[in-house]
From TrEMBL:
Pfam families registered for this protein in UniProt: NTP_transferase
Organism: Parapedobacter defluvii
Protein name: Nucleotidyltransferase
Nucleotidyl transferase domain mapped to chain residues: 19-181
Residues annotated as signal peptide: none
Length: 303
């Protein structure tokens, strides 16, 4: 059986952070967050890494990643573009941002033919997540049985502002029954205690610390491409007048669950997630990585 593939979403423009954070250095020897994800994926048994990028960044990415990964893992590049004709949609729609994460995954439909997982380029997930996902993709995945890593919400928030989180409802079998995208989730001090809230339409609602959230770490087979393409073909005409609308993986997952076409197993992890949403997060990520290196979790120099 072929080894699973790691598909990295790296085409975003990093509008909140203010630089192309996908290739920003964070480790003691200039390692990027992607480097740590790839290092963990290789240890966990993945056989290929595919980068979803904008074509104009291709040379820069190859210059950075090809020398260090040669002989360690196969590499591939997928280009996300605004061109809708490959999906049989004969229209041009002006947009300032790509069509979203599920469209990015769809862009890889002709290049991935084995079970695969999807991650964000700018999120530090931890080795346990890759190990659990590799096991699922090797032993359990099926064309109607997908998965996602479920992080504890209090281990995923920023101290510097609100964040978006996909909050999962999970049944007794460990499968997600629905995912609710909360666009403004934050810590708030209440009676000397740090608690978690989300705000929607001006209404503040508390979330339990044990809530499981998706950090966009999903496990699929190539069967996801066909069902996603049908949904995307319906999404575009319904949203062509809304340039900020995005075709997102949680929307596809929710649709498949509601239609009874697939299950999504939530793989719980105790790892602390960290990432860079705001510029103030960068030194914290650097400190966390330095601590992991000091504790021997990662070598001083990855590659």
């Amino acid at each position: 059986m072929s080894k699973p593939t790691l598909l990295i979403l790296a085409a975003g423009m990093a509008s909140r952070y203010g630089s192309m954070k996908q290739i920003d250095p964070f480790g003691p020897n200039g390692e990027t967050i992607i480097d740590y994800s790839i290092y963990d994926a290789i240890r966990a048994g993945f056989g290929k890494v595919s980068f979803i990028i904008r074509e104009e960044f291709a040379e820069k990415f190859k210059e950075i990643f090809e020398p260090k990964l040669a002989g360690k893992i196969e590499t591939d590049y997928v280009y996300q573009s605004y061109d809708l004709t490959p999906f049989g949609i004969d229209r041009q729609i002006e947009r300032s941002k790509p069509w979203g994460t599920a469209h990015a995954v769809l862009s890889a439909r002709n290049q991935i033919h084995e079970p695969f997982c999807v991650i964000n380029a700018d999120d530090f997930y931890g080795y346990e997540a890759f190990e659990k996902m590799a096991k699922f993709l090797t032993d359990e995945v099926a064309d109607d049985k997908f998965s996602l890593m479920g992080y504890q919400i209090d281990k995923t928030l920023s101290d510097y502002g609100s964040v978006s989180r996909g909050v999962c409802k999970v049944d007794d079998q460990g499968n997600m029954t629905e995912i609710n995208e909360r666009l403004k989730v934050y810590f708030k001090e209440v009676d000397g205690e740090k608690r978690i809230f989300f705000e929607e339409d001006g209404v503040e609602t508390e979330l339990p610390r044990s809530s499981r959230v998706s950090m966009n770490f999903w496990g699929f087979t190539p069967a996801i491409f066909g069902v996603s393409e049908e949904l995307f073909k319906a999404f575009v005409p319904a949203n062509e007048d809304n340039p900020k609308s995005e075709f997102l993986i949680p929307k596809v997952a929710d649709e498949l669950i509601q239609q009874g076409k697939a299950t999504f197993k939530v793989l719980p992890t105790s790892q602390k997630w960290f990432g860079v949403t705001y510029p103030e997060d960068k030194p914290i990520v650097q400190e966390n990585i330095a601590r992991l290196v000091k504790d021997g979790i990662y070598p001083e120099k990855l590659f």
